[in-house]
Amino acid sequence: MTDILDELQWRGLVAQTTDEQALRQALADGPITLYCGFDPTAPSLHFGNLVQLILLRHLQRAGHQVIGLVGGSTGLIGDPRPTSERVLKTKEETAADVEKIAVQVRRILATDEADGTVRAPIFVNNLDWTAPISALDFLRDYGKHFRVNQMIKKDAVAARLESEQGISFTEFSYQILQALDYLHLYREHGCTLQTGAQDQWGNITAGTDLIHRVDGGSAHALTTPLITDSQGRKFGKSEGNAVWLDPTMTSPYAFYQYWLNVEDASVVALLKIFTDRGREEIAELERQVAEEPFRRSAQRALAEDVTTLVHGRAATDQVVAASAALFGKGDLGTLEAQTLADATAELPGGEVPVGASVVDALVASGLVGSRNAARRAISDGAASVNGQKVTDPERVLEDSDFLHGQVAVLRRGRKNLAAVRPTTS
Known about the structure:
Layout: H1 4-10, E1 16-17, H2 20-29, E2 33-38, H3 47-61, E3 65-70, H4 74-77, H5 91-109, E4 122-125, H6 127-130, H7 135-142, H8 148-151, H9 155-161, H10 169-172, H11 174-189, E5 191-197, H12 201-215, E6 220-224, H13 252-260, H14 264-274, H15 279-291, H16 297-311, H17 313-326, H18 337-344, E7 349-352, H19 358-365, H20 371-379, E8 383-385, E9 388-389, E10 408-412, E11 416-422
Parallel strand pairs: 2-3, 2-5, 3-4, 5-6, 7-11
Antiparallel strand pairs: 1-6, 8-9, 8-10, 10-11
Helix pairs in contact: 11-12, 13-16, 13-17, 14-15, 14-16, 16-17, 19-20
């Protein structure tokens, strides 16, 4: 059986550990209890958070006890960013985001395994144990164990101290709050491993240090590498390029298309990180990337696996069908209304009245520059409505052409698509 730490390293899920050999032994002797925290700094988790949830799933399936923590208290403070102070949200806004994120964490970590090898996850909110602590108790019982000269060495804190804006005491104290979480879970659940992204290393090790100082205990830390886009930017809310797990913020169709469009140079690494596919299967997909890149088999496998994990099989089937139907390999009329709306949201187009000619619709959509060009496209057999070739230049758009009453999909040639909607006024 593969050592779980070896498996995680092969998958590219390990950046740092406090003591690799000791952690490896603890995992082998297990089961151990571990946790990862998710702060409600937005109404949804995103691409980067998914890495942590997948790491927890691997450890969960290896027989270990996982704890999913949502930061009702740490979310009120905000982990310091290296560039600027966070704008504090109200307690009501934070509580609402806690509920939304808790649902996502529960769904990804949920298990109904019947063989008893997978332990049901534990879900906690750190506001439950932080809120009752008075300011004096916080400073006396926990603050006294932290040394400012060490705290200011944390990367984000150091960067902010060098800036004109500086850093508030509120954000400066964040690492104490996160360390307190680790100590509480160590005491209450015997938790001896915290995981997180590589930029959380300082916060996590603050927790291992606190456990050692206060209780004389030993605990571990494991971080994952940061996943960056093609410009080398961290995926996250603050970078403006987040891929959200909430379907109302990034639709399942857009989510699927994101993974489908991953560049060949990155797809194998992402298959290892984001899917459960084994070494032989990924090796075969890697061969196909090298020898048959035009098939995009690896990207399709990646897109289907991750979309199914986040949005479920039914949603994935719908977006796969929509992707095929848009390019003439399926029936657009069978798509659900929301999937159709998501699939056509980014297409160029315009509004036309019911009864308008296809010629005028092609012009209004921007697929052609003139009515004469539209007629030529039709006579050449290069125009279609909802995947059905148009042969009559006098053809008009009927009510039934606007699928679900909302959109008609026009195509000129093989790849030029547009969406027209019925005039609303």
